[in-house]
Amino acid sequence: MAADGASSQEAPRTLLASFAGYRPRWIKTDVAAGLAIAAVGLPSAIAYPAIAGLPPQTGLYASIAPLIAYAVFGPSRQLVVGPDAATITVLAAVLAGMPDLAAIDKPGVAALIALVVGGYYFAARLVGLGVLSTFLSRPILVGFFAGISLSILVGQLKRVTGIPIIGDGLVAPVIELVRKAHEVHWPSLLLALGMFAVLHLVRRTRLPVPGQVVVVVLSVVLSALFDFEGRGIAVVGSIPSSLPALALPAGGGAAIDQLLIGAAAIFLVSFAAGIVTARSFGERGGYPVDANREMVGFGAANVAAGLFAAFPITASDSRTAVNASVGGRSQLASVVAALALLAIVLFLQPALAILPIPALGAILISAALSLVDLPALRQLWRISRMEFAFAMIALFAPISLGVLNGVLIAIGATFAYLLHKMMYPRDALLGRVPGHEGFYKLHRRADARQVPGLAIVLIQGDLLFFNADRMQGRIDAIADTLVGGTRWLVLDASAITQVDSTAAAALEEVRAELERRGLKFGIAEMHDEVRTLLDRAGLLDAIGPDMIFDDLDDAYRAFEASGEAPSPRGA
């Protein structure tokens, strides 16, 4: 078993990576996992396209070819790709932003967007943009997915009530629902409530069969027995009983700029959702996740989606969870799931045609609620009010300004948070503790004392154009507070890994100002890149080699030997 476990965590850099070191005895669990993935994936595959106004068969197509493509090109053994609520919601916003787009053109444009998203993945991989995942912070993602959840919930109002709601946003549809309450189609609403209760009951009783599967089977049986369509309950309707031919999608009605910008937003959200899923299951399984290599798998899956008349996809957390729980050991599970769904398309089309829309609405509402991570929001509130505020920005932006604008605002909030942190590097005065070696922060150690005549200032952060003025102001402010008799001010640069020309100029102004105050300015513990740039800027020459130190102890000894230290009486 140890050998198997080690093998399962390897990350070969070739095609069919998940099959490297495959063991024949894994076939049984992989087949079982594949059938379970298909069972869980079928309801969402049919339901999710409705969010973007696409026909249900596109969700089935998005659950077949992309799985096989990822099995060939993807690096993970366990990750399963497919339709995702957040990604399809952003796609809905992109399509809604194309006012000249006819309903008949939507599937073709969605498939074309999937191709462009795949191209973005490959381009991002070529330039190593896997680092993008680090900019999508946990608070932003927690808030954004909660906002997406509310958008999905509002979008299901017309499906579960039968009321033709045309309002956008969060408040307008609710007001419209209240105003048209007399138009509620009660059989549809009662069916949706009943199916939602079934989902909750199955979850509470922990049946071995997923709740979504129970709802689909039960609602199809009820629809056949009681003729739901004849009673005014909307049903899925005719679904093609074949796969589309491999072809480049037609993108009629889509402007190139809208296409490229919309695909970029979908790429960012799908990558964020996918890499979060990959990392979470990587942590559970004890194997590393390479974001750049995942881009290849996601790119191939989206290209396959585009060529087979589907829409953009990403990693599916529910399908991946089922795969892990059943014991899938490789991407053979994904291949089996794709073949099972293909068989459903070919042979079970009549059953899918009478599947009631309110039941799908109940599935989507349940899925949307699962995106709201209340424990994570409470934890953010407890840990950092600032990060909680950014989560709220990411939550309300999709609701108030639309999902597409919400994506851009969430990303902008991430960069604003990062910039805020970098703009205000921490600083501290250092001193000695009697009987101890080294230097300590004066505000952290009550027994620490400034070396008489020597001020040591620690700057904890990079010095760049956007914080150089603040750094200069902080050192000037510190100089104003120094006790009389201080002769040297030494900057501890051990926590400064980068400087630019603006910061170098600011440091020169600091040196000149301190000189006017009668203080010598020195720098200790510079990193090589910092030293090189400050040398090119001429600052080190202006400071002089006798005030450049390898470490703080050298600076301390040099100060003691300079004869400028005040005498005990003066001190």
UniProtKB/TrEMBL annotation:
Gene3D superfamilies: STAS domain. Coiled coil: none annotated. It is a multi-pass membrane protein. Pfam families: STAS, Sulfate_transp. It comes from the Bacteria. Keywords: Membrane, Transmembrane, Transmembrane helix. It is found in: Membrane. The chain crosses the membrane at residues 31-51, 57-73, 85-104, 110-132, 139-157, 184-202, 209-226, 232-252, 259-276, 296-314, 326-348, 354-376, 388-419. The keyword Zinc does not apply. GO terms for biological process: transmembrane transport. One of its GO terms (cellular component) is membrane. Residues 444-559 form the STAS domain. The keyword Transmembrane helix applies. This is Sulfate transporter. It comes from Xanthobacter flavus. The lineage of its organism: Bacteria, Pseudomonadati, Pseudomonadota, Alphaproteobacteria, Hyphomicrobiales.
